[in-house]
Design brief:
0% strand; 8 helices; MREG protein; Melanoregulin; elongated
């Protein structure tokens, strides 16, 4: 019989909870995953919040900001995944979106094109929220799409599914479904 000390999975749940507390990105066991600017911002917010008294107003505000940032990041990732799946990358979507600091650009000549497409996505679609600062991780995703010759099609799909709207314009879910 295995005693719990020899069971490599004994602390699995605790490890997952700890990783979720630190961050939500692709490879939480990668010690470099808090190196990107947006990861560092989230990490620093968590560190400051954890030093505060949980009954304080500052703790509540930081906790809300952390939750909001995580939800926004999940929403953006979900939007990207949705488009990738619509383009036929159902099985590959998660791996295409998996980015760590160990990720590399496949072809340095694609860097300029990847930046241009990412900027175009942020300016001409609503795939990112209006308050979103461009994340380096999506530069890697666009690079992968360029390598797969799917970047332009991804942009076209993002333009249809998440079109840029003026601030007064709203689309309900039934209109999105019709457009899609």
């Amino acid at each position: 019989p295995l005693c719990s000390n020899n069971n490599p999975y004994a602390s699995f749940g605790a490890t997952l909870a700890r990783d979720e507390e630190q961050n939500l990105w692709s490879t939480p066991h990668d010690v470099t995953h808090t190196e990107a600017d947006d990861d560092r911002i989230l990490y620093n917010m968590i560190v400051v919040r954890n030093q505060l008294d949980t009954d304080s107003e500052e703790w509540q505000k930081l906790n809300y900001d952390i939750y909001t940032l995580r939800q926004t990041r999940k929403e953006v990732r979900s939007r990207w995944k949705h488009i990738l799946e619509d383009l036929g990358f159902q099985k590959e979507a998660d791996s295409l979106l998996s980015v760590t600091k160990l990720s590399i650009i496949s072809d340095s000549q694609n860097m300029g094109k990847a930046r241009d497409i990412l900027l175009k996505l942020s300016e001409e679609t609503n795939i990112f929220p209006t308050s979103w600062e461009l994340s380096e991780r999506y530069l890697f995703v666009v690079d992968r799409l360029i390598a797969l010759d799917a970047a332009d099609e991804f942009f076209r799909m993002a333009s249809v599914v998440y079109p840029k709207r003026s601030s007064g314009e709203r689309v309900d879910d039934s209109q999105k479904a019709t457009q899609h």
